[in-house]
Amino acid sequence: MKEICVYHLNLCKSHIKGSKIVLLPGDPFRVPEIAEEIKKQNGGEIKEIAWKREYRTFLCYVNKKPVLVTSTGIGGSSTSIAIEELAMLGVRTFIRVGTTGAIQKHIKPGDVIITTGSVRLDGASTHYAPIEYPAVAHNEIVNALIEGAKKTKVKYHVGITASSDTFYPGQERYDSFTKYVPKRFQGTMAEWQKLFVLNYEMESSTVLTLTSTMGHRGGCISGVVVNRTVKEKITKEALMSGEANAVKVALASLEFL
Predict the structure, then answer these.
(1) How many CB atoms lie within 10 A of CB 35?
(2) Helix (H, G, I), strand (E, B) or coil at 36
(3) Is 120 a catalytic residue?
(4) Distance (Å, rounded) from C-alpha 113 to C-alpha 160?
(5) Please, how many CA atoms are within 13 Å of residue 179, restricted to the half-sphere of its CB?
(6) CATH number for the domain including 137?
(7) Geometric angle at alpha carbon 158, from 27 and 240, rounded to 5°
(8) What's the number of domains the chain is made of?
(9) DSSP state of 72
(10) CA Rg, the chain, in Å?
(11) Contact 22, 91 (CB under 8 A)
(12) Measured on CA atoms in the order 191, 195, 196, 202, is the torsion positive or negative?
């Protein structure tokens, strides 16, 4: 039988050693950092098995079971390719591990947000299901992430995320080149705040929609790197804290999956 190989990730089924779970950061340079943390906590070999374009993959072991860490790049389009091709190889549980900007006043940089569902402000997910189809996280992943946050004593918030295809207009940022936000997005941040949406990010609606339509498990944890009700600028300290806490909780959650 011919082996299954996928183009964009530059992986074949034999490379992933039967992995069923993948952690999905956006940044390819965060992949080895997560892998090193897995090795630190669990021992075992970690190995870079592919890096093509924005897609970088390490094979790791948690309790002697294979786990992948694969970067998706930024946004729904590249994320959809990663999920499609990982599913072709046999992966069944997908956990996005990213960063986010909070829009509710009580959420602090360094906290983590566990997404239960996403406002679908992307385009990629509409190629898989109509906009009426909900982008919801699998309950087993939500529960595992909550247990991971409790175990690591990281402050966490559980709720709805706005997931936008764009960083500037879709998230109603006015510090872009043109300083202009189209009318359809003007005032939307205040609207999402009124509707108790917790944060903005750029991939969760794609992850949750695709995994649900495939019958797989999908979830998302994001480290807060800025609270936009206070300021827009992301500090180095907040970025490091948000990233580290999201990874810490994600790794702790694997015990419960």
Answers:
(1) 22
(2) helix
(3) no
(4) 9
(5) 0
(6) 3.40.50.1580
(7) 35
(8) 1
(9) -
(10) 17
(11) yes
(12) negative
Give me the catalytic one of 120, 138, 228, 243.
Answer: 228
Indicate if 96 belongs to the active site.
no
* 93: number of Cβ within 10 Å: 21
Position 1 pLDDT exceeds 80: no
Report d(CA 250, CA 13) in Å as an integer.
24
Of these residues, 173, 203, 217, 243, which one is catalytic?
173
pLDDT tier, 44 (very low <50, low <70, confident <90, very high otherwise): confident
Residue bearing tokens 């190889």:
89
Which residues make Cβ contacts (< 8 Å) with residue 177, sequence separation at least 6? none
- Which of 37, 54, 85, 201 is the catalytic position? 85
Name the one residue in this structure whose structure tokens are 């990213």.
98
Collapsing DSSP to helix, strand or coil, 98 comes out as strand
Q: At residue 180, what are phi and psi to the nearest 5 degrees?
A: -110, 135
Q: Which residues contact 131 (CB under 8 A, 6 or more apart)?
A: 120
169-211 per-position pLDDT tens digit: 999 999 999 999 999 999 999 999 999 999 999 999 999 999 9
Residue 227, both tokens: 């609270």
- Find the catalytic residue in 8, 33, 147, 216: 8
Burial 117-145 (b: 16+ CB within 10 A, else e): bbbbbbebbeebeeeeeebbbbeebbbbb
Dihedral angle of Cα 17, 220, 99, 52, to the nearest 10 degrees: 30
Domain extent at residue 13: 5-256
> DSSP states of 159-223 as a string?
EEEEEES-SSGGGT---SSS----GGGTTHHHHHHHTT--EEESSHHHHHHHHHHHT-EEEEEEE
What's the pTM? 0.97
Establish whether 8 is a catalytic residue: yes
Known catalytic membership, residue 53: no
